[in-house]
Each structure stands twice: as C-alpha cells, then as structure tokens.
Design a protein that fits this description.
The complex is a heterodimer. Chain A has ten helices and 20 strands. By secondary structure, chain A is an alpha/beta fold. In chain A, the strands form five sheets. Chain A has a six-stranded mixed β-sheet with strand order 4-3-2-1-13-14, covered by helices on one side. Chain A has a six-stranded mixed β-sheet with strand order 5-6-7-10-12-11, with no helix packed on it. The longest helix of chain A is centred in the first third of the chain and has 25 residues. Chain B is an alpha+beta fold. A six-stranded antiparallel β-sheet of chain B has the order 2-1-4-5-6-7. In chain B, helix 18 links the parallel strand 18 and strand 19. In chain B, helix 7 packs across helix 15. In chain B, about 25% of the residues are buried. Chain B is flat, with a radius of gyration of 87 Å. Classes of the chains: A alpha/beta, B alpha+beta.
Chain lengths: ~375, ~900
Amino acid sequence: MISLLHTADWQIGRVFSQFEPDDAAALFEARFKAVERLAGIAAERNVDAVLVAGDVFDLQTVSDKTIRRMFNAMQRFSGPWLLIPGNHDSALSESVWSRAQRLGAIPPNVVCCLEPKPHLVDGKFVLLPAPLTQRHTYGDLTEWFSGAADDSGLPRIGLAHGCVQGILSEDIDSANPIAAGRAGEAGLSYLALGDWHGTRQIDERTWYAGTPETDRFRANESGQALLVSIAGAGAQPDVEPVRTGQFRWQQLEPRLSVPSDVDRLVESLALIDSNDVLQLRAHGSCDLGAHRRLGVALDAARARARALVWDGEALRLEPTEDDIQALHADGFVGEALQELRAQQGEADAELARDALLTLARVLDAQGPNGARTGGAA
Amino acid sequence: MKLQRLRIENFKLFRAPLEIDGFTDGLNLFTAPNESGKSTVAEAIRAAFFERHRSSAVEHLRPWGESSATPTVELDFELDGKSCRLTKAFLGKKRCELVIDGRPMDGVVAEDHLASLLGFRFPGKGASTPEHMGIPGLLWIRQGTSHDISHAVGFASDHLRNALGESLGELASSQGDAVLKAVENERNELLTPASGAPRGAYADALKLRSELESELARLLAEIEAYRSGVDRLSVLRREHQRDDAARPWVALREQLAVAQQRLNDGKGLAERKAAQDVALKQIVAQVVSWRTQLQSMEREEATVVQREKNLQAVREGLEKALGELQAWEPRHAAAAQADARARETLRLARQAASRAAQEKAVDSLAEQLAGLVQNLGKARGEQEKVARLQADARSLAVSESELKRLHRSADALRAAQARLDAVSTALAFDLQPGARVRVGGAEIAGTTRQTVIARTEIDIEGVGRITVLPGGTDLESLGVEHDRAHQELVSLLQALRADSVAAVEERVRLHALRNGEARAAEAVLSALAPKGLDTLAADVALREARLEEAKQMLLAMASTSDAHVPSVLQAESEEGAARTALEAASSALNEAKLQTGHAREQVKAAEDELAAVKSTLADPLRAGRKREAGEALTDALAQQSAIEQRAAGLAEQLRTVNLPVLAQDVERLERSARQAEASHSQRAGEITRLEVELETKGALGQEEIASEKRRELEHAARRSAELDRRAKALDHLLKLLREKRSALARRLRAPLQKHLDHYLQILFPGAQVEVGEDLSPSRITRQGVRGVQSGTFEELSVGAREQMGVVARLAYADLLKEARKPTLLILDDALVHTDEERLGQMKRVLYDAATRHQILIFSCHPEAWRDLGVVARSIS
C-alpha cells in the first residue's frame, strides 16, 4: 500500500500583471504558500512521496531568492519529493534546475528527475519520469515507459507533463502530446500528469492534479491536489482531491438594464471578501444615480477583495430627469448634458459617456448652491 | 431724454450768461471756432449731472481768476414725457434744484434721483470719474474719446445687460460659469491650454509608460540572448560528447602515419632512381669518349684513301687548267693584233677628217673676210657721204637767230609796206589794150593796181600827166621806214648770201634735208660698222691674219693618199669592237693563268697531306692504342646497359607512386588531425566560457524581473489610458460647454447685434461685427480693397475706430431706448479723423439715429456738416 500526493503546475515566480502592485505581490506570495500547504498535507497524511508533474517554476531565470524560497517552502515534509521539468522550466543545458543545483538549494530529499530513467523510490515503487528537456517538444516523451519493463513487482508510477491526445481541447500550454491509454499500455499503476491547470480525471489510472493555487480566471476546478492510494502493483488507485488553494478567481459579466439589476450587483459586491479575485465587466445601461451607487460599491469591494478588476466601458449612461434635476444643470450646462446623452448613441459613445460622467462629477462637486457669478468675467 | 434749453453763467469762459434754447428733438448742430466755448457747453451739461452741487473738486469750473464766482448751470429737459428743470450752482452759493412736472426736489435727493433715472452714480468724494458715469458716460462722447469705447462700455455694462433683458441672467446660469471654470481647470491640468498636448500627470504617465516599454524591450532582448546562449550550449555539449566518443583525430593520425610511410617509401625510390640516372650519365659519357677516339682513328685510316683520291683529282684539275691556258694564248695574240689594226684605221680616218675640216675652215674664213671687206668699203663710202652731207648742211645752216631776224625784218617790211599801202594812194588801172600809160616812168598795161607814196606822175599817152600827190601823215617817215626795212632785209639777205627770204627758207629746208640725209647715212654706217669704222677695219685685218694662218696649217697637213679610209664612226666602232674582244681575251687568259696557279698549289697541298697521313699511320704505337680503346668501349657499353636496366626498373616502380599526391595526403591528414584536436579543445573552452556566462546571467533572474517590469508596464499603460480618456473627456466637455455658452450668449445679444448691424451696413456695407463678452465691439470683418479683412476693434485705424465708436454708441442708445432708458447723445468733435467720404456715411448714420434720439453735435468745421439737413448754430 502506497500513498502519494500528486500535484503540478506550481508556476513559482509568476507575476500577475493585470492587477495593482500590492495585489500582484500578494498573489505572487500565494504560490509559495500553496507549496507550504502541500508540505503540510503531505506531512499530516504521511504520504510515501510527493509527485510534482512539471511547471514547478514559471520561468527559467527566476531570481535566486525565488529558487531558494521554493525549496524552503517544502521543509515541512521530509519525505521524498519527485519533481520533473515541464515546458516552462524544461531541463535545457542551462536551466533553472542547473542553477538550483549550483546554488545548493535542493535539499537531499528532493529529487529532480531530469533524465527519462526509472527511479526506485525508497524501495516502495518505481517512478517512470518523462522530463521535458527541450524548449519545444513535439514527440511523446512517455513512449519509453512501455519498453522499461522491470521485474521488481513494485507498483510502476508514471510522472509526465503534456496534453493527452484526443481528450483535451487545444486550450493548453504545451504541444507535448501524451498518448491516451498510456497508463494501461505501459503497465502503470498510476500516471500522474501536469499541464492542465484544473483537477481532471482522464481514466481510472490517469489524472491531472491541476495547480494547487488558482492562477487564472477560467473556471476549471483548480486550487487542489490529489491524494492517491494504491494497494498493490496491479490495484486500482484510489484518488481523493484535497483543497489547497486560498483564493477564489471569478469572472462576472453582469448585464444591467433596469435599476434592480444594479441593486443586485451591488448586493453581490457586498459579499466579496479577502479571498476573492474578481474580474467584473458590465454591459447595458444605467442612470447616473445607479452608476454612482455602483461606483461606491465597487470602491468598497475593491478594498475588501484580494484583487478586483472593473471594466465599465460597455456600460452606457442614461441620466433620468431626476438625475438632471439633481445635478442642477440648467442653462447651457443643461444643454451640454443633453447633447452628451444623445452622443452616446453615435460614433464616439465612450467619449460622450466619459464626458457625461465628468460633468456629473463636477456638478456634484459644485453642489446645489454653486457660485453664481452674475455675469461673465 | 430731450434737452430744451440751457443756461450757463460764471462757467469757465462764460462769465456773462449764455443761453441756448430751441433745441430740436433730433440733430442739434453747434459749430464754433476753437476756444469759443463749445466744449465748455458740453462740460457744463456734464457737470450739471455728474458733479454734486456740494463738491469742492470743481474749482476748474470757475472762470479764470474769479475765485468767488458761482458757476451755475440751468437745464430744461423732457424726461420720460415729463418736463424737468435742473438748476445747479457750485462753489459759491451752492444750490441744486430739480423740478419734475412741477414737483420740486433739491439737494442730494434731487441729485440721486436724477442719477438713478439717467443711469449713473456719484463718487464717494472728489470729482466724478468715468467709472461713475454709467450710461451718459457712454453716450456723451468727450473730445477725442470716440475711439476709446471698451472702458465706457464696461462702466455702463450693468445697464446694458439689463437692457438686454433679465434673461441675460440665463447666461450666468445657476452654476454655468463655475462649472465651465472647473472643467477648464481640470482639463488644463492634463492638457496644455494652447495646443492640447499632454502635460502634468498625463504627460508623466505617458513618459513612464514609454520608459517602461523601452526597458522591457531591453530586458526581453537580453533574455532572448540568454536563451540563445542556452540553446547554443546544448548544441556545443552534444557535439563535444559526440567527439569525445568518436575521437576522430585518432583515426586521422593513424591515416597520417600510413601516408607518411608511403611517402617515405616513394621518396626512397625516387632517390635510388636519381642515383642510377647519375651513374648512367657518367657511363654514357665514357662510352661516348671511347667511341669518339676509335672513330677518329678509323677516320684517320679512311683519310689516306681520301687523300690519294684527292691528289688525283687535283692533278687532273691542273691538267685541265693548263689546257685552257694553252687555248687562250693564241687567241689573245690574235685579238691584240686586230685591235692594233683597228686603231690604226681609226687614226687615219681621223686624220682625213681633220684635213677636210680644215679646208672648210679656210674657205669659210675667206668668205667671211670678203664680206667684211665689202662692208668696210661700203662703210667708208657712207662715211664720206655723211661728211659731205654734213658739210653741206653746215653750209646751208642758218642760225635760228638769223632766221628769226630775217623773218622779223620781213615782217617789218611787210608791215611798213602795209602801212604805206594804207596811207598810200592806190591807183587802179584798167587800161584798154592800146593805151599807153606810164606810171612814174614805168609803163603799165592791162588791169593793174599800184600804190604810190610820193609824188607820182602818171603819164598817159595822149592825155598828159597826172600827178598823184598822196597825202597822209608821215608818209615820208613811213617811206623811210619802209626803205629802212627794205634795206635791212636786203643786207640780211646779203649776209646770208641769199636772194630772198624764200631762198633762205629754202636753204633752211635743204639744211634740214641734208641733216636728215646725213643721219640716214650715219645709220647705214652704223649698221655696217656697229663698233665703228676703225674697229671694222681692225676686224678685217684680224681675219686676214687668221686666214693666213689657216692656210698655212692646211699646207702643213699631209695630203691623203688612201681612198679607202672609212668614216670615223665606222672606224671608231670597229676599234671599239676590237678593244672589247681584246679585253675579253685578256681576262680569259688571266683567268686561265690563275686557275693554273691555283691548281698547282692544290696539287702541292694534296701531296703534302697525303705524306702527313701516311706518316701518322706508320706510327707503331697506334695499333696498341686502338685495341685498348676498343676494349674499353665494349666494357663501358656493357655497364651502360646494366645501369639502364636498373633505372628502367626503378622508373617502372615510380610510375605507380604519385609523389605530389602522397605529399598532399600527408599535409591534408596532418592538418585535419590538428584541426580536429584544436576545435575540440576550442569547443571545450567555449563551453566553459558559455557556462560561466549563463550562470552569471541566469543568476540575474531576468525573466522574473521582466515579468515584474511587464506588470509595471501594464499598470502604467492602464493609468495612461485612464488619463487619456479622462483628458479627452474633459476636453470634449470643455469644448461642448464653451460652444453651448457662446451660442447662448449670441442668442442673448441678438438685439444688440441687430442694432449694430443696422448702422454697420450704412458705414461698411457687407461687414460683420462680433459682440465681445464685455458687449463692446470685438472682431470686425469687412470687404476691403484687397479682399476680406478681419481684425479686432483695436486693430482698426484711428479714423475707423472713431466711426465704429460712434456707431456702437448709437447701437447702445437704441438698445437702451428699447429698455426705456434716457438716451441723449452728445458728440463733441467726435469725428476729427474721419475723411470726407466716411463723414458722408456717418452723416447718414446720424441722420437715421436722430429719428430715435436727440443728438448734440459740436464741431469746429461748419463746412463739413453742411449737408446734415440741419442749420448749424453758433455758440454765443
């Protein structure tokens, strides 16, 4: 009976450029924290080994500090960690792995499998790794599994990084193909895969663990790792997903037509908390009052959320009479306001909308008792 | 407001009261010379309204030098349909009384009331200044201020705006201008006011973005370089491993050794062959020398035969030569004889020829001589003739002077005769045949004529005697003269030994004739003896001598005896032929002699040679030497063939060995081995270098930095996009607000615009004027001489500004009138810079305006206003 913690796609060193600096920094940090959590789980559940199926690092030339921090984060589990390079961190002649080695940052219990050779792990199972050693790989690196027969009687565990042919869409990082049914064909008890960032079962013995901390807005069941138990050499593996991710990444595109839509949106914004990473893109139209309310709600939510990206460009402003009254826009100012409203239906709608908002803001700031000059200067 | 009467007293130069009444409703024209007080009148009106009666700042209104006077102004006017009278007295006895429609007011109350009615106010203290003067300040134009309008408009602007209607308050809407200002400020924070270029935070954001872009680009380039370095390292390592395994230089070195060996072998062969060649050369030389020796010996032996043959031949030759010689000798002798004979013949022929020639010569000489002698005789004859003729001529000579004298004398005689005849009496006789008449004793008969100069008696037979006594003067003298002349003539003739003049003339003629003949004879003489007679004689003598000589010579020559002497020519040719033959024979003979001599020598030589060879061959040692030479030759030949065989064998071997190619192989393999080793170690070096480089670079963590930079860039891009949108929105909003505002303002100012346009069309047809924010005229666009001109009010000429100033004020007056404000206009010398043409248009303008307002015009140019339609009034 062996138990393994299967994880992949740590993407250590990834910079999230679409967010504000402090949010981006926090999300950068989160990746290390995920490794720490994995180490914690591995120690807690006393697994026989942790398998990391590629894309450990997001870049080849991460800083030395990042390299060290990553290996440090693995401290809590002193058992074997088995890593293979993926396409982001492929084992080129000079790579992040050779740098890590030179730095002496790799602890002795961490094995970086940079060659396609079978590896006996603690006498408990045989690991067959398929490391990526080139910048671009177009062949199936798991082919050699079938030929690497052994008579140890121990479970054979495959560790690979790529795209299972015929199962997944083209929406994936690498071109590295992996034949469907490889596990069965090569007599593997379990094939631990990486590259697809969501937890996904391929067949009874083949799973993608997904990234332990979500890193993009596509909803795909990420933020997990897999606890795999295998009774014996030919036995069916028992796979249990465990939550490891901290942050919830959401992408919302609310359509606003009536005021109540805005109210609903405001309500849902109120529920945003510090573990939310939210992208909000609104469509439709709303009046100035609603727009103001929405703005207030967004500001509040932004402060609470881990990160919030708001895109209101597709939102059209339709000031009501009340709005205009409230603004005290009369005389030529009122005329200007009406014209801007009309311009929203023409070619440069965005410009008109922005100008309209600006005018509303200025009028708001002036207040109902704006200075009456009584004549031009 | 309509002024009706005016009275001023103690006011500046009007010490005595001045009263003007009869003001009309429309135009009132006052013309007066300078310094006559017309401006004072205007000033009085102004003071009456603008200055408080209690003011102490009005000292200047007093007449000069009258420090106690009380300047007083009294005005009757109609205001709003009510008749009013204002009386104001300053300084001395201060007073202010206002009566409106019978209702009196006085003092400050009256003043304030008027001020509010007319639209002006009073200063707190001191004299009134333009800012207080409001509407009348605008409409009552002081001297020289018509072109200066904007201040006056400003001070009256409240009233003007009121006149434009309460709705002008719309323009200053509840917050409109404040909003505009706020928007403008916000916009100008992000964009420059002039060109709309980014500034402030916006410019900074753009700058930051572009800086980050370039930094990122730089980083990415470095990362790319790093990546290529990594790829290159992979390649190098692969190659290095391959070479480490294969070690190609080892194989190459083995090949090199083999090639070297082959080369060495080949070289050995070549050397041996070369040695054989050398030996062969030597032996061949020996063979040649022995052979030569033997050959020369044999040649010697052969020579004997040769020599004997030779001797025989030359002997035969000698025989032949001798034969020739013998043949030629007699022939030669014969030829010599013939030649001698021919020469002799020639000599004789020549001799004969010369004798004949000589005879001829003698004959000719004699002939010549005869001729000459003849000539000589003739010449002598001629000479005599010449001499004779000359002597003849000489005897006949009559000198020129004598002849002349003669002629003269003859003439004189004739003249005397004629004179005498003239005075003489002529007697003409026509006698009958039988009549016997004697004149002066001389008988006459027939028909004759006589002249008588003296008494003459005519005796007629049977009749008697008639005595003719010619009269005439000087008959005697004439007769004397005549006689004298006659005597002279006779004596001359005698001197000349002639009978008559005619005879003399005949002599002269003969003389000439003789001279001519003499000359002819001379000519003949000279023809005969050109050089003179003596010369001819001498010549003759000479020839005679020659002839004698020749005759002598002839005698000396022998006479020919032989009749068969051929001609010289023939003899010469024969002689020539004989000579030639002789020469030929001589040369042939010589030749034969030579040949003979030569042949003899040859024979001698051949005999000698034969003897020499024979002696050589008789040498006893010779046979021995010959034998030796023969043996040596045989040996050498044997050696030679042996060497040749060996050499041939080596050459055969060498042919299969291509030495240059072998050498090249060695070179090539040597080089390849070296290169393979070198590049291997070089590659090792490069790998090490590259590893170090990549280590260092990798340690920089550049991709991470680049990712971070990219994040910053996106952030900066977002920010600048945001500011961009913000700036654009503000700009758009500002433009829109301004647009709306000025549209509104235009609408609101329409009434004023209308009034201005009305007058402007009269002054500048087709022109347009914009009303500025401050309601004064701002931009004027006119059709000028050079096309459309557009400029601000200030840019007009002083004259045009004057005109516009007046026009604008009329427009304001119209506007104010619509608002039921009082509009009295005063123009005090208001159009001094205006030319006649424009003044004409201004008069139309004023005429039109006067239908709505009372206008007082003060001018010092009465002539300029004659066609105003109003009688000019003077001030006094």
